[in-house]
Design a protein that fits this description.
Shape of chain A: elongated
Oligomer: heterodimer
CATH architecture of the largest domain in chain A: Orthogonal Bundle
Number of domains of chain B: 2
Structural class of chain A: alpha+beta
Number of strands of chain B: 3
Largest interface: A-B, 29 and 32 residues
Distance between the termini of chain A: 84 Å
Strand order of the largest sheet of chain B: 1-3-2
Helix content of chain A: 25-40%
Structural class of chain B: mainly alpha
Largest sheet of chain B: 3 strands, antiparallel
Number of helices of chain B: 23
Radius of gyration of chain A: 26 Å
CATH topology of the largest domain in chain A: Cytochrome Bc1 Complex, Chain D, domain 2
Order of helices and strands of chain B: HHEHHHHHHHHHHEHHHEHHHHHHHH
Chain lengths: 332, 475
């Protein structure tokens, strides 16, 4: 009977050890902040809301439960880090201002990739409340959902180089940054066409001048930053060349029948805007484009980037969008 | 008590009638009795070595379930997926079955807790048995339920083989079923009639080079206590063993035989197949055909180039999956049995055999055993070998939580089988085909009909199957 008891003890000991090791390790782990990343369809970030005090380091251990994701914090300079299936990536964040920050995925993980977002609430002594500046399209009272369509379009792609060669200067009122931000290229072209001093120039010449004016409101650094942001965040839907043909474009375009696709992408989605279409883009002003980026396109599937991009980043992105319509010299 | 094998077996055997026949039989058999080898003998005689291995596999089994439930959902980083479907599954098909028949059953942890309760002891049995100890219903005997279980696994294979949670729940259900059944029915009802792996292992064990058999039938005939039968957890009587399909190699008969009349033999491969009176059970024929059909379906889903098929197999519950399921069931229950029956029928008609078709199909099904076994081996090589490096990495990080216990978590080494694997697969499929052909030939020679006419249609069936496997795996 002693042998029998020995056998029983061995069995019980081994089984208890086999359960205790993973359960114990799981308990130990649960005391640190581990963030699991999954495609938005199966849960997104878990947990998705975090709280930390100003100035306190926030240690995060990131892991993916399905495909490769990436972790980035909106409106910060923290470089994105990859979140790899089955591996742990350690990140330490410190916030110096209270507020609500958005963290998000920068890898095109699924058609609902952009929905992978979470928030970090940074609490702390209220500093002098900064007045929140409404975006320009709000100040201007612009309806960014209104139909916009260019009545006139250039015969060939307007060129900054050709515009510069003309050696013509346009009236100063059109050269200001305020004008650039609040008007579309078509509006400038029509205004220039009305100018008697420019009546000797051809329609295409005027388009080249528009391109020149638009370029003068951007910097090579803006374009470079815009290109990088576009490649990371926009090209998945709008395509690398801006033609609205990104890898997820077809998924978004599916007819809405309430079937499988609707469940994947939400009820209302449509094919992403084609930035190479002059009739569409030339009728939009920078403020309009910035508004769309900040707020998203309601009922189109276009995400809102307000909590993610800084204002400077949104303008850089807008500047880059014009390269799909204008031949710009400094294009990186 | 004298131990026959040790000292007096010749004398004692000669006392009973037929001793001379026995000596002749032993001399003519090409078998090596492992129990006669001095250093192996204590390993088999004592319950401890087998018990210790089984206790370890039980711990591994429980750990696998825990890892599946709590560990990473990434299959390649979860012990449950890698150890069950890559390591164990490969070891089962490449080593345990072809070399040891049901040797896995002898160390399988699943029946241990149930049997402990049933017998009120692990090493020593209590006087009174626990549970209802009912007899297994006659209607449910045979391998029908095992075939169904295997088909069920096949229907959900794409998810079961990749999702650690699902794998854990499957193992847990099998475990629960085994424990529950051992409290209701006598002996190993789960192992004998339910366990799909048991069914798989059992039919292929007939080709394996290991057997437990009685040495002298006359000694058994005169032994009225039948301690071997009393002690066999599988409910088998060693004297009546026709083949090794049901024997789980637990060695309890050998330990309890007072006459020392049980041998653990190493025998030629395929000893149980090739005789017409063997395996004339339709349930075994269906199981053999389900194994062939499943090998085809698994190869198509996991190795084949069709994305649509893979997505359909994964999208459980969707219309596409229903279509896949219907196709899978039709292949296993209609196409394979239909084609095989047709082949047997053609052979019967051509050779003028008068055997009943049903019986002929059941008889000829043994031809399919080497074919199926080697098809599974070939499938395993292309499915599991390239993933072997995960075995090392999950040993270091079994739960996928970023550990590195053994320093092998990030092993980049992966066996590159792309070069020789197609050649190896062709070779393996050919071995299976030729072996099957030789069994068909042996079977045909036991009848008076022209052997070639009888076997050609069956060989054509085997050939088409081999070509289909080859096409799926090598392209």
């Amino acid at each position: 009977m002693r042998k029998e008891w020995l056998a029983r003890i061995i069995v019980i000991f081994l089984v208890v050890a086999a359960v205790a090791i993973p359960v114990g390790a799981w308990w130990l782990r649960s005391r640190g902040i581990v963030i699991h990343a999954q495609m938005a369809e199966t849960g997104g970030w878990m947990p998705e809301s975090l709280t930390v005090e100003v100035g306190q380091p926030l240690h995060l251990r990131l892991t993916s439960d399905d495909v490769m994701h990436s972790f980035a914090v909106g409106q910060s300079n923290q470089p994105p880090v990859d979140v790899i299936p089955g591996e742990m990536t350690d990140v330490t964040l410190t916030f110096d201002r209270p507020g609500k920050y958005t963290f998000y995925c920068t890898r095109w993980c699924s058609v609902n990739h952009w929905r992978m977002r979470g928030t970090i609430e940074v609490t702390g002594p209220e500093t002098t409340a900064e007045a929140v500046k409404p975006p320009l399209y709000v100040t201007l009272g612009m309806d960014i959902d209104a139909e916009h369509h260019a009545e006139v379009i250039p015969n060939q792609m307007p060129s900054v180089a050709r515009g510069a060669k003309l050696g013509v200067s346009i009236p100063t009122e059109y050269q200001s940054q305020e004008y650039y931000l609040s008007h579309s290229p078509v509006e400038l072209w029509k205004a220039l066409r009305e100018e008697s001093s420019l009546s000797r120039l051809s329609d295409q010449d005027l388009w080249d001048l528009v391109a020149l004016t638009w370029q003068s409101n951007t910097t090579p650094q803006d374009l470079k930053q815009g290109q990088q942001l576009f490649g990371t965040n926009c090209a998945a839907c709008h395509g690398e060349a801006g033609a609205g043909d990104g890898v997820f474009a077809n998924d978004l375009e599916q007819p809405k029948t309430g079937d499988h696709t609707d469940m994947q992408t939400g009820e209302m989605t449509m094919r992403p805007t084609d930035f190479t279409d002059p009739e569409h883009l030339l009728a939009a002003s920078p403020a309009h484009l910035q508004g769309k980026i900040l707020r998203g396109g309601m009922g189109t599937g276009m995400p809102y980037w307000g909590p993610i991009f800084t204002e400077e980043q949104t303008w850089a992105l807008v500047a880059y969008l014009w390269t799909f319509q204008f031949e710009m010299e400094d294009l990186p | 008590m004298n131990k026959v094998q040790e000292v007096f077996w010749k004398e004692e055997a000669s006392l009973v009638e037929g001793g001379a026949t026995l000596q002749k039989r032993l001399a003519s058999q090409k078998r090596i009795n492992l129990y006669l080898i001095l250093w192996i003998r204590p390993l088999l005689q004592s319950r401890w070595p087998q018990f210790l291995v089984r206790a370890l596999t039980l711990a591994g089994f429980v750990f696998t379930i825990a890892a599946g439930l709590f560990g990473s959902r990434v299959g390649s980083h979860n012990f449950a997926i890698i150890f069950v479907w890559i390591a164990w599954w490969t070891a089962l098909k490449l080593a345990f079955i072809p070399l040891g028949g049901r040797s896995w059953c002898s160390v399988c942890p699943i029946p241990l807790p149930g049997e402990w309760m049933q017998q009120r002891g692990i090493l020593e049995k209590g006087g009174q048995r626990f549970g209802l100890s009912l007899r297994w219903p006659k209607r449910l005997k045979g391998s029908w339920l095992q075939s169904s279980g295997f088909l069920l696994i096949g229907l959900f294979s794409a998810v079961t083989l990749t999702d650690a949670r699902v794998t854990a729940w499957v193992l847990l259900s099998l475990f629960g079923l085994a424990v529950g059944l051992s409290l209701v029915f006598e002996r190993r009802a789960f192992c004998s009639y339910i366990c799909p792996i048991g069914g798989f292992t059992g039919i292929y064990a007939k080709t394996a080079p290991v057997e437990v058999r009685v040495i002298d039938t006359v000694i058994c005939a005169t032994h009225s206590e039948k301690t071997c039968y009393q002690n066999c957890p599988w409910g088998l009587y060693p004297l009546a063993l026709r083949d090794s399909a049901q024997c789980g190699l637990c060695m309890e008969c050998l330990r309890s035989c007072p006459k020392d009349n049980i041998a653990v033999n190493v025998r030629p491969f395929g000893s149980d197949v090739g005789q017409p009176h063997h395996s004339s059970r339709p349930d075994e024929a269906i199981l053999a055909l389900v194994m062939l059909g499943s090998a085809l379906a698994f190869s198509a889903v996991f190795i084949g180039p069709w994305g649509i098929l893979k997505s359909a197999a994964f999208a459980i519950g969707s219309p596409a999956w229903l279509l896949y399921g219907l196709g899978f069931l039709a292949l296993n229950l209609l196409v394979m049995p239909g084609a095989f029956t047709l082949a047997v029928w053609a052979g019967q008609g051509w050779s003028g055999s008068k055997t009943q078709l049903r019986r002929a199909v059941a008889n000829q099904a043994q031809v399919l055993l080497p074919l199926g076994l080697f098809a599974w081996i070939a499938f395993t090589i292309s499915f599991a070998f390239p993933k072997m490096n995960y075995v090392l990495s999950v040993l270091s990080d079994p739960l996928g939580w970023g550990w590195n216990l053994l320093g092998t978590a990030n092993t980049a080494w992966s066996p590159d089988v792309s070069g020789f694997s197609p050649i190896l697969q062709v070779a393996i499929l050919l071995v299976g085909l030729f072996w099957s052909a030789s069994i068909a030939h042996r079977l045909a020679q036991t009848t008076n009909q022209p052997p070639l006419r009888q076997t050609l249609p069956i060989l054509a069936f085997c050939l088409v199957f081999s070509l289909a496997m080859l096409w799926l795996m090598v392209g």
